[in-house]
Amino acid sequence: MEDKRLAVVTGGNRGIGFEICRQLALKGVEVILTSRNQDGGVKAVEKLNISGLTNVVFHQLDIKDPSSIACLAKFIETRFKKLDILVNNAAEVGIIIQDQEEFRTGGGFLQLVDERAEFLSHVVEELYESGEECLKTNYYATKTLTEALIPLLHVSKSPRIVNLTSMHGDLYWFHNDKVKEELQAIETLTEERIDDIIQRFLLDFKNGKLKENGWPLTLSAYKVSKATLNAYTRLLARKYKNIIVNCVHPGYVLTDMTSQTGFSTAEQGAKGPVKAALLPDDGPSGVCFYETEIAPFESPDLPLKIKHYFQGIKFLVL
Ligand SMILES: NC(=O)c1ccc[n+]([C@@H]2O[C@H](COP(=O)([O-])OP(=O)(O)OC[C@H]3O[C@@H](n4cnc5c(N)ncnc54)[C@H](OP(=O)(O)O)[C@@H]3O)[C@@H](O)[C@H]2O)c1
């Protein structure tokens, strides 16, 4: 009989991450629910254990802290000897919402399009410092954690990596053709080149040159972080033929990140990531799922989709 599958989920204490843990556990996967906050993580595991899901354990993990990553890797190695599934869910959005009411009634995240950048400046604040932290978490820390756990994934018979992305990581938002081409040229793309793109973005952000150099003008750092994470996902899939590596946009989900705006619940949002985590051995690798369906990395119809949502905007209220 095959060993029980083991998954690590980052940011499992709340939102979509918590739901991914719950749904994986329901499918019989042994889950390590990780959280940077000990109390929040322990409480989340207790909640799942009390509901009958005794196959969930807690381990502290701050993905930005290399010693915390090393501690988790040691724990997995000692106790389980291998890892089957890594779900990189933890992220931050890099903006401060100044006016929650106007943000919600104005269309939530759907209004964060370049055409409205100036108008939105009193609703949403994007400081360089929070943008930099956003890139550190969503791209660099996710990459550091992944690299630390790859040796344990190599021990698994069917390893999977799932990176939570966003429709905001779609290359549609980028107006710099060179950057778009670089991120799409998967056969020649390198980690160094991705790093260079991020550093160029940060420099332009600091010097107020986002428009001049064709970067996204709203939710800028988050958009760059997810677009580069998508490229890294494809790069990993190219490099490790034995690991199925994909990214998943969970949909527009009611969580703290979205100030509880959205069209779906965390339970619905977790379905795509869970599907990607449990793909069969002949499943696709290096692709992007929009919820549960494969989608392009650059969607020409994105503005239409957003316009359509925007016109009929009716957020789900729990
Ligand atoms: N909600 C949506 O509509 C939506 C849409 C597209 C993509 N996504 C993506 O889906 C994922 C989950 O989003 P969500 O909406 O569930 O977000 P959320 O409710 O804001 O939860 C974010 C989680 O990430 C954790 N986190 C942040 N920085 C961390 C760090 N350095 N180390 C460890 N954990 C850290 C948070 O921990 P704390 O509790 O300690 O802060 C929290 O558990 C993210 O990757 C997000 O970009 C969400």
From TrEMBL:
The keyword NADP applies. InterPro entries: NAD(P)-bd_dom_sf (IPR036291), SDR_fam (IPR002347). The keyword Zinc-finger does not apply. SUPFAM superfamilies: NAD(P)-binding Rossmann-fold domains (SSF51735). GO terms for cellular component: membrane. GO terms for molecular function: oxidoreductase activity. Keywords: NADP, Oxidoreductase. Belongs to the short-chain dehydrogenases/reductases (SDR) family. This is Glucose/ribitol dehydrogenase.
